[in-house]
Amino acid sequence: MNTVHTRRQFLKQSVLGGSLAATVPAFIASTFERLQAGQDRGKEGPILVVLQLAGGNDGLNTLVPHGNDHYRKARPTLGIPSPAVLRLDDQFGFHPALKGFKSLYDEGHLAAVHAVGYPNPNRSHFRSAEIWATGSSSDRVERHGWIGRYFDNACAGEDPTVGIAIGRQQPQAFAGTASKGISMERPENYRFVEGSTGRNRMDEDEKHTYREMAGSMDADGDEAGSGGTIGALAGGGVVHPDPRAFLERTALDAQLSSDLIRRVTTRPSAGGSYPTTAIGQSLRLIGQLIGGGLPTRIYYASQGGYDTHTRQKDTHERLLRELGDATHAFVKDLKAQGALDRVLIMTFSEFGRRVSENASAGTDHGAAAPLFLVGGRLKPGLHGTAPDLAPERRVRGDVRHSTDFRQVYATVLERWLGTPSKPVLGGTFTPLPLLV
Amino acid sequence: MAASKNSSEMKQAPAALKPLPAHAWNRGAAAHLLNRAAFGGTPGEIDSLAALGPEGAVRSLMGRRNLPDTLPAPAWTQLDLATRAETLRAMRDTTESERQKLQRERQREQRQQGVELVSWWLRRMHQSPDAFREKLALFWHGHFATSSEKVREPLLMWRQNQLFREHGDGEWLNLLDRITRDPAMLIYLDQAQSKMTQPNENYARELLELFALGEGHYTETDVTESARALTGLTLDRLTYEARYNPRKHDAGRKTILGHEGPIDPWQLLQIVAAHCRSAAFITAKLWTFYAGVEPTPAVAAGLVEAFEQHDRAFGPFLEVLFRSEAFYSPDVVQRQIKSPVQLLVQACRQLERDLPPPTVSLQVLKALGQIPFAPPNVKGWDGGTAWINTNTLLHRHNLALMLVTGENSLPALGRGRKGGQRRRGTPALTAGAGGCDLAALLPPSLRSKPEECVAAIEQRFIGRSIHVQDRKALLEFAEAHTPLDDTEAATLLRLALCTPDYQLC
Fold this sequence. Notes:
The complex is a heterodimer of chains A (about 425) and B (about 500). Chain A has helices spanning about 5-15, 15-25, 25-40, 70-75, 100-105, 125-135, 145-155, 205-215, 245-265, 280-290, 310-335, 405-415, 420-425; strands at about 45-55, 65, 85, 95, 110-115, 165, 180-185, 300-305, 345-350, 370-375, 380-385, 405. Chain A is an alpha/beta fold. In chain A, the strands form 2 sheets. In chain A, strands 1, 5, 6, 7, 8, 9, 10, 11 and 12 form a 9-stranded mixed beta sheet that branches. A 3-stranded antiparallel beta sheet of chain A has the order 2-4-3. In chain A, helix 1 crosses helix 2 and helix 5 (about 100-105) crosses helix 11. By secondary structure, chain B is mostly helical. In chain B, the strands form 3 sheets. Chain B has a two-stranded antiparallel sheet with strand order 1-2. A two-stranded antiparallel sheet of chain B has the order 3-4. In chain B, strands 5-6 form a two-stranded antiparallel ribbon. The model of chain B is unreliable at about 1-5 and about 415-430 (pLDDT under 50). Classes of the chains: A alpha/beta (about 425), B mainly alpha (about 500). The interface between A and B is large, with 84 and 91 residues.
């Protein structure tokens, strides 16, 4: 199929692009040519995959301090019994459902940073997620996201596919002056359907049908458990001074990216099998896009359901299993593609949970928690200072942070993406020795 | 209710909300009111509102409570206690495998009822003459966001929805009281699970942060103390009613928002509702929902004043808002990004067509990012530009095709489980959305007059001129194909529904 021809025809026929074609035709043509060429360009350069654990992941039951008496006292029913823990050393081990993480750790592909957070922690999901998304201090409200500022500072040009978020919502972390980055839920639907031409049938991927059928009207196909209050956390909307211009710009980005995405994703994936969970399928898609050689620097996926106020045990176990298994499959795929050395995965959650469990067999909102990095070029193992769980060392009953999350961002920006972190973070944060 | 007693002309509106003068009232203003206070309408409906003048139009839209209700709730919304008790007993007194079977059956039934519930509400938005009330219920649903994904029981979601319909224009403390005792809310924010020994903070926190005061206007101590104050309030799992057990309430001294005492749930709500932030918080949120922009400081102050003038009752307050000149300012009109529900319902009203079948409507709303009864989290939908990204915008463009021609490109929705087996080979295309009546919208007499075609589309769908570049493109299309056959007329309509202007109202 002659894509250039159909694209031009479309731009000409449709008012969506028609309005812009008349005003900025050169801009469209040049961007479009670059997108066509971009498939080769994308084969080099580092890629960051951000994995949001929405709802507040219980860090203490993820990277379990199994040798700690304070942990045992604070978690009489929810504590993970020592023998069940997937031991890393005498003090720490993974939740038993995190077999995927344990394998990655053993293979030298996983690094954990203890007690990541920020001063004066906020226990609101939305405020804390906003702080993580914007990279601000807890006493300052920012609108633009840290990834959006990275696009503004380090990614010249108009290419909208520099950032791709998997899902229906654009994460607040992507918000920036130039509003780059696209959102996509399912590549086969990521297109403008022309009517009455007989071409509106889809090449339906059987796995996707299966997933959709399994999903019903649930947001992400998960069984909603006790963590169901937070299914997704995109972050607050950014107020745009001119909604019409914003719509125009987004329409253009959608057109420019849709053919490219679909061409890449209709090629067979090399990556072997992924779990059928929502997070598994998100990572499968990212693996496919990476394999297609898109020029994308940042991918963003989210797993919801971590707000485990009640009956935490089963829900948390399921979430961690899904997370570990999906990440493990993703790394296997990247290895098979020979791409693992170019990819770094970073998890985050808006906060950890209270050290002491509550009376509803759950945990309430907390503060600092471990953060995980996965990839081919990192220093595996546990980093940073382990949290002191003694009651008098907690902040309002929460884990006190020992590493500022912006130090992790600075590490990723400077030592992975290769860009100065100060213009992005608006301050100086010392990178950590996490990468090689 | 309170609206008739406290007739608004007895009280002068605050200066920042002075009424729109009658001479400034026109068809555009009437269309704006109908879009924002309800779900838009046909040219004929706009004309009738325009004829009433500003005061009459607002009164007319808001005064339809007692019209006959032609859209009764599904039969399953009437809980039969005997059956419920029997079900619970059967679940209890049976084997594990039998229990799981019963649970699966119940889940299947709940999914079906969930679809019926969404469909019922959408039909009310689409057909009820009292669409103002449905729009207000949609606001409250987004504000006191509760999701069926956790609550599970459609009956309880329906009851909460009725609460918004019946009390959404009532008094603030009354609404807070009812929502705090609402069974779906008790489940959703875990109050039903809270215990005196170690209270669950979920409801207490969101009450302060999201429902009544806003982040930054309370302390962490206020949250933990409020959680103590709420203990004793729980849910009766048989009758599905809230229950307050004083013996399970922590009656000890508490300090909340500067008040001290053995505060109980109702005293907590009084403290919260009377807090100086709460009027500012809720009125600004209502303004932002209806006006599409945040209030200026002067408007914000006026909103609080009007709210207090009308004894914190939302009906009379909204009457002031809808009549205010500020609501019709250029910063407000045609600058709000339509929510997915607004887009779907308004487009069907403008196209004078039925809503798509229930599962198709659900599938569309899911793709666009707003499933009624399933907000993404307790904060509800962020709205505004958050509705729009490359993914949702492409879906909006494809929705336009479906509503005009009936062609649906979205994959089918629903669990194909049958006897534990998943059905395979469900067709990817969902048929049966139905198109619109092209001959009525673009009559043959217009088809050879490109300028008049475009003008008719503008008048019906945008309410003013489409942006000049888009207008030019539409006109060129119409000129190139004149006279338009049905396919071309449909394409022209579809393209108009894809313009940036059509995403706004």
